[in-house]
Amino acid sequence: MNKHGQALIIFILILPLIIFFIAFFIDSSMMLLENNRVKEVIKNNMQISLNDNIKDVDKIKKIIEDNGDIKTNVIINDDDLIVKAISEKKSIFGNILKNKWFQQQISFCGNFENKKVDKCIE
Q1: What does the DSSP 8-state code read for residue 113?
Q2: Angle in degrees, 0-180, between the axes of helices 57-66 and 3-51, rounded to the nearest 10
Q3: Residue 51, C-beta contacts closer than 8 angstroms, at least 6 positions apart
Q4: Which of 42, 52, 75, 99 has its CA at 20 to 30 Å from residue 105's CA atom?
Q5: pLDDT tens across 64-105, in order?
Q6: How far apart are CA 4 and CA 102, in angstroms?
Q7: Residue 13 domain boundaries
Q8: What is the pLDDT of residues 15-47, one digit of tens each?
């Protein structure tokens, strides 16, 4: 029996799994990078708004959306600033994974009095 032929057949059978795991790893990594980027954009721009005491919802929303492709909902209650954001990233291997878009929702809360930004607990 030809052992080289058997190894080739096993490799051909396993190759789609290897490709799937590589695609999954790349898309997952891109999702995590996008998640970190969106968090930093929101936190940094919220901190600027808190430090400069900007209480105009439209202005804060524009500041955040101009610095990244992020859809935001800004809420100001008394001294609290709440930003809820949705970010979408196109998947490279979406047709293989049956998921063409990654969507993530992130919420941050800040306080104008103590000038701190934290992740909201929902």
Answers
A1: T
A2: 150
A3: 115
A4: 52
A5: 888 777 888 888 888 888 888 888 877 777 666 566 777 888
A6: 42
A7: 3-119
A8: 989 988 888 888 888 888 888 988 898 888 888
Cα angle 34, 38, 44; round to 5: 145
Phi then psi dihedrals of residue 79, to 5 deg:
-105, 10
In this prediction, residue 21 carries a pLDDT of: 87
Q: What token pair was written down for 117?
A: 């930004």
How high is the pLDDT of residue 14? 94
Total count of domains within the chain: 1
More confident residue, 118 or 93: 118
Residues in contact with 5: Cβ distance below 8 Å, sequence separation at least 6, in sequence order: none
| 96, 29 Cβ separation under 8 angstroms | no
Helices first, then strands: H and E counts in the chain: 3, 4
Query: Which residue is it, tokens 């291997």?
Result: 93
Structure-block tokens of residue 90: 């196109």
